[in-house]
Amino acid sequence: MADTIDLTGTGPASPAASGKMNGAAGDGFGGGFMTAIGVAVVGAGYWGPNLVRNAQATPALRLEHLCDLDVERARKVLGSYSTVAATASIDDVLADPKVEAIAIATPAGTHLEVVLAALEAGKHVLVEKPLASSYADGAKLVAAAAERHLVLMLDHTYVYTPAVRRLRELVRSREIGDLQYLDSVRINLGLVQRDIDVLWDLAPHDLSILDALLPDDVQPVAIAAHGSDPIGAGHACVAYLTVRLSNGAIAHVHVNWLSPTKIRTMIVGGSARTVVWDDLNPSQRLAVYDRGVDRTEAGSLPMDIATQAQISYRLGDMIAPALPEGEALRGVMTEFAAAITESRAPLTDGRSGLRVLALLEAASQSLMNGGVFVPVERSTP
Q1: β-bridge partners, 374
Q2: Could you give the CA distance from residue 232 to residue 69 in angstroms, rounded to a whole number?
Q3: Domain 15-158+328-348, second-level architecture
Q4: Residue 105 Ramachandran class (φ > 0 left, ψ -120 to 50 alpha, else beta)
Q5: CB 219 within 8 A of CB 8
């Protein structure tokens, strides 16, 4: 096993396990499939039924098994007339030659054992976020997939929404100019978790979106986190993250379980345009503003007015791009099948999951140390 993991995908990994895709090549969500890929879903709890439904609705996949320790729960998910096998034995699933791929929806603490077992059995893996409960465990899984030339994909579902896919195009093509800042708010009166804080519960969504949006030449370099526990839950229920980027820009994320109102917004500012994504506004999820602040050369103006003269305000139009309809999880399943068939990395591959884990661990360290900036890990511990 290699001592380091190349998080940017420029190392010697196989095509099916390589890193972050370049440009539009990483945005393919389909293609022709000769035969359906046999898949099993492990976990029939909160998220498993959604995986089952979308696997069955994806022509490129053929659902063979639903595995859960509670077999009766698995049978209820499948329904009375399903020909899909319900089982409590993951060993039986992994031994089935008809199963080429596994979709895993079990708690993060089980991911190292379950994902590693699937990879060692020669199965491609789609796993619910986060990749693992620690960066070190995630690195083991990425290395195991690369060694076996298997697809390891993260279910970073928001990345596959039509809005985020279009936002990714706008940022990476530099239609908005150079990235200057990103400001994200994900708050609601949510379920206060007992085993993880609000950072590990909600921030992976925003951090995975950030990872998908960033151009290849821009990376997070440090992160600071501040949080509070006003209700005595034992860990942070409100938190703010600040991520320093390699181009000098910053990204800011606010997550909160205690807000009486639900807000899901992201503002991405560029030197040419600014994009506002409002996930709760179905009639206008994206708005692209040709408005902002420009800086011009002051020329030979006196020093006392030169600074003000360099600043001008641009007040252009707002455009709301038309977005296709489509369930994000269907896009996840289609991309999983396409990556397997085409022997390439999926958009949200194992390395993207590892990059998110690196940010989460650095954020936790910052939170414990009073909010200082902590460098982001780029290789295995």
Answers
A1: 223
A2: 33
A3: 3-Layer(aba) Sandwich (3.40)
A4: beta
A5: yes
What gap in Å lies between CA 78 and CA 120, rounded to an integer? 27
Looking at domain 160-325+360-375, its CATH superfamily turns out to be: Dihydrodipicolinate Reductase; domain 2 (3.30.360.10)
> Are the folds of 15-158+328-348 and 160-325+360-375 the same?
no
For 138, the 3-state DSSP assignment is: helix
pLDDT, tens only, 236-258: 999 999 999 999 999 999 999 99
17-66 confidence digits (pLDDT tens): 333 333 333 444 444 446 899 999 999 998 999 999 999 999 999 999 99
**Which residue in 369, 86, 124, 347 sits closest to 223, CA to CA?**
369
Strands 152-155 and 124-128: parallel
156-212 pLDDT per residue, tens: 999 999 999 999 999 999 999 999 999 999 999 988 888 889 999 999 999 999 999
How many Å apart are CA 177 and CA 270, to the nearest integer?
Answer: 5
Domain map (residue ranges) of the chain:
15-158+328-348, 160-325+360-375
Q: Supply the DSSP string of 4-30, one letter for each residue.
A: S--TTS-SS--GGG--SPPGGGGG---
pTM (two decimals): 0.84
Strands of the 286-295 sheet, one edge to the other: 311-319, 286-295, 274-278, 258-270, 179-189, 250-256, 238-245, 220-228, 374-375
Question: Dihedrals φ, ψ of 273, to 5°?
Answer: -145, 165
**Of the candidates 192, 181, 338, the residue with the CA atom closest to the CA atom of residue 269:** 181
The DSSP string of 47-74 is SHHHHHHHHHT-TTEEEEEEE-SSHHHH
How far apart CA 22 and CA 291 sit, in angstroms, is 29
